[in-house]
Amino acid sequence: MSDTTPASTYARTERTTPTRYRDRATWEREAIHAILDSAYVCHLGFIADGAPVVLPTIYARVGDRLYVHGSTGSRPMRGAGAASGLAVCVTVTLVDGLVLTKSAFNHSVNFRSVVAHGTAYQVTDPEELAVALDALVDHAVPGRSGDVRRANAKELAATAVVRLELDEVSAKTRADGADDDDADLDLPYWAGVVPVTTVHGTPEPHGSTTVPLPAYLTDLHGGR
Amino acid sequence: MSDTTPASTYARTERTTPTRYRDRATWEREAIHAILDSAYVCHLGFIADGAPVVLPTIYARVGDRLYVHGSTGSRPMRGAGAASGLAVCVTVTLVDGLVLTKSAFNHSVNFRSVVAHGTAYQVTDPEELAVALDALVDHAVPGRSGDVRRANAKELAATAVVRLELDEVSAKTRADGADDDDADLDLPYWAGVVPVTTVHGTPEPHGSTTVPLPAYLTDLHGGR
Questions:
Q1: How large is the ipTM?
Q2: What CA–CA distance (Å, rounded) separates B182 from A30?
Q3: pLDDT digit string, tens, across residues A57-96
Q4: Model confidence, pTM
Q5: Which residues partner with B60 through β-bridges?
Q6: Cβ contacts (< 8 Å) between B119 and chain A: which residues?
Q7: Domain B14-222 is of which CATH architecture?
């Protein structure tokens, strides 16, 4: 393996090692990337005036880097603009099923989640900002960035994006059936899994739209 | 109005007043409760060893109180067990649509989110814990807590739940169409909204299940 080939797993640290259900955790790069590429919003955690703050926002992955969208002038952006950056935790979660067991205690949720810790820095280089903005647009709708008016200099200057290197990151997954204690198995209650899926409805064109539905939206509509 | 009638809005504070898009914010109790009752997982933010941590977990609302599930022995639970409690931020987000505009810059997401700030305390009273566990089970599947074996004393002792009073809380919502600048309206790109919905699949019974599908699961399957 050459020096430039990334390792197939991220390094484990104390805070990316869960205290419970360690068998649900993984540090595998591919598994983590797949989860990050499947959700629409992340939850960005940071500290403001000594207290935790968690805000939902859009994001995109480019290689081993996350770009997280913010508002210019907002608290996380001001912090990430400092040379020392901003300590953040970025979490992405997908719910795949409700797991019903015969005992209330063993109820669970099937899910996929990624938690990334690190220091976020504001993206200020116009070229990197343009790459990040394309990635943000393509994250939700792959192929879209090639079929829009791209941001001009004024818009890029008004776009606030932070960069977080994926380094201290782990995923956690549950994808199993109901798991009752043996003593409960004969109880007369329904046990099993109710699948939960995110689907796309029929695209609703704006009145100004004069072109047919692009292929990348047909695929999206029929896809995930 | 009597003294015991709750106000119809939560009090606004500096940190529940967004720095941008204030017209998307609301402090109305009913609107906030409706969003909290519609999602499956929340993102719990807290500070551990001086750094922000955001973990996904299940939760339930009982009146003006949130119950958030944790693991006994996990970091947030240990902190919330202290007399002074644990400073937290609990955020719930639902994605309703992808908003595509002719300019990359004006792309957006239709969403509903709630951000609650406060101090969380571990629930230790067995009666309150039993109420919280019922609420957690009923949150995802309304009616379920009456059709399971309820937790026994040993299970209650192994259940870690924190309580957060809804006090400093706000919601933010976008539910609009594409909003392009006038100068971009004639560009030959598709603009509009792709609706995003969460749906339930056909319930998959565990091999131990001998009863028919309960009505509360039929409703869920056909419902939201």
A1: 0.94
A2: 42
A3: 999 999 999 999 986 667 777 778 788 899 999 999 999 9
A4: 0.94
A5: B67
A6: none
A7: Roll (2.30)
